[in-house]
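Technical note accompanying the year-one report. For the benefit of new consortium partners, we illustrate the data format agreed upon in the data management plan: each record pairs a sequence with a structure-token string. No post-processing was applied to the example shown here.
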Amino acid sequence: MEKMIVMNTSSTTLVLENDYLELSINYDGTYIIKDKRADIVWRSASGYAPFKEMRKLSNTKAFLQTDLLQLNGGRIPAQVFIELENDEVIVEAKVDNLEMSINTFTILPPLPPIDSQSYLLIPFYSNGIAIPVSEKQFAGWHWTTYGALDMPWVGVTNGDFGYMLLWDGRSADDGLCITNLVHVDSEELLTPFAYHEPTMQKFGYPRRIRYIFVSEGGHVAICKRYRAYAKRHGFLVTLKEKAKRKPAIGLLAGAPDVWGANALNIVQFCREARAAGIKRMLINGVWQAEIIDFIKALGYLSGRYDNYEDLYVCCDKHRPPFNMGNIEDTAMKPDGTRYLGWETWDKKHVAYKRCSLLQLDVAKKYIPEQLKDHPHNTWFLDVTTATPLIECYDPRHPHSRTEDREAKRRLAKYVGEELGLVLGGEHGRWWGVDIYDYWEGMMSCNPAFTWPAGYLRPPQKREEIGEKYLKWGLGHKYRVPLWELVFHDCVVSYWYWGDSTDFLYRVAPELSDKKDVFNILYGTPPMFWVNKLGFTWTDPKLRKRLLQSYRITCKLHEQIAFDEMISHEYLTPDRDVQRTLFAPTDNPQEVTEVIVNFGEKPYALKRKGKEYVLPQFGFYVHGPRITQYRILVEGREVTYIKTNDYIFCDAGGKEYDFGVCITDGQVSIEVEGEHYIRIVIEDPKTRKVLLRPQMLAKDFDFERAKLRILNERGVPVVLVRTIQTKEDYIEIPLARGKKFILIW
């Protein structure tokens, strides 16, 4: 039992100290934290109420009495425990009566940024944004830890030192961050205030937050601290670990998320996609069992859309599971009204929110029956993780936000673990990372949309894409991969379906280019609509653009899907050029470096004695399993991708020596077996291809080599003689065909 050291209440300051921090708690309700490592002093804003009866329980722990300030102006007497734990300050508030009714409240005054060059890190319904503390437009914003924030924390950093404000334990289910302005040295700086919501209109349980300080490393160090926290608490489970139970998870590596295939001849589409080099794919739709088996036999994932949140009781025009239940099965607000769900575009049908306590029973009735005739290996739960946690006040099935979260986890566990399906969902949350395998929407920032994305209605002209989206939704200067730095190797992230890679292509094609390089930088795969909403597969030009996006994003994702994002940094002051690093957690020396240029100005990069000039949306990637780049050579763009079994070369219309290949056009080369290499001429304007096969297969034998021409179905039809050049290249006879297989 700790020895209690009682301070004289007439003293004005109490000091706690360890090797990392020194905390001075002042009677007037303020406090000062010194980070000894960086010799940085953080000073709180003005106090809300005096700190009374301050008692020092040990050198690192204190107790005090104070009043908690409510948003409505009321005050609550409370006991507050403050403890130093290494470089963390833990603050916990208790009251005598946990059943007391309260309003939203805060415990301590906030810690404002030290200087105006700092940023607020907000994991805001997206991968994350960094808001300059001078951005006054965000004053008064409310960010709930159970809705707006995908992880229950916010950060403050100047790019070097800083802190994370974390709602700890159950407090994450009822937390609220309000960003507001605080005066610091004659400036007003945006500052995070830590608030707590009632639970079922009551105080409910002791509330706890942590201030976690980093002395260097900025946003990366802050994210890694949360990753460690997630691992300690059991909700960080990697895809490699999940794949031990569900091997099909491995098929997510390099798989674009594809919607709209139901508008095509699905068998023909799959054959054409495979012949075009799309090795893996997640295809969403409902087909007959034999077609689904065909899809899976190609190595593709067959996904099924589903939704247990929305319940329609308005008429009999809705199919299961949307019509399975009645109004009494829906969640109730404190005033007795029901929570509304999705509203159709024509406003004729409005769903209610099915209470989460009842969703699992509906799923158990519906999904097994569907799997009998439709043997999907992947299942997509819409809405479940996308909406905020809510409370239900229906006396037949009441629940708190914590119980709402646990009920939604039970539904996910049933689908992903009991049924063994690869599990996807709409938008990700920290509390589902250990169960879900992929999430749509993590690459997008839905609150920044300026068109009806949820209704899949793309802008008809460029002016409909607003500045809010361009700056915060897709603005590389303010986006930051907070989510990927924590969970990249745990869940695969895609774009939102109304903001897919190709959704804006017809009115703003450059935004698809930008999304491609975001995918490269973040190590994530794209999303496509193969019907009229996106890169329409039946349109040759749009199909070519889809394949371009696939190659430069998915071949990389194949290699690093299960790697941790270990770093992210800005290589230029304007943030136009950014770098990420990836590595397996079990082999951290195998680092893959990714550099992209978002800016209009070319960026010169030196690696291994060679200079690479990156144009806008150019990139350079190098790691133990992949090398790829898009660079400027004599004013034209040259693209190269190389993995252990795949090569793509695009010389930009003029002869270029890629080492393994010399060409003036576009060619794909794939090692398909021990003695088979497939060669595909991707651009009919290509006039020359010289291949050095020994760089792909050390045992290649020129004497035994045979080159066969393939027809459009990939069947060998003509045998041609191989011609070996002096430099051990093989000349590909382009006049004879566009697809070849080299055998030896």
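Partners are asked to follow this layout when depositing records. The chain has ten helices and 48 strands.
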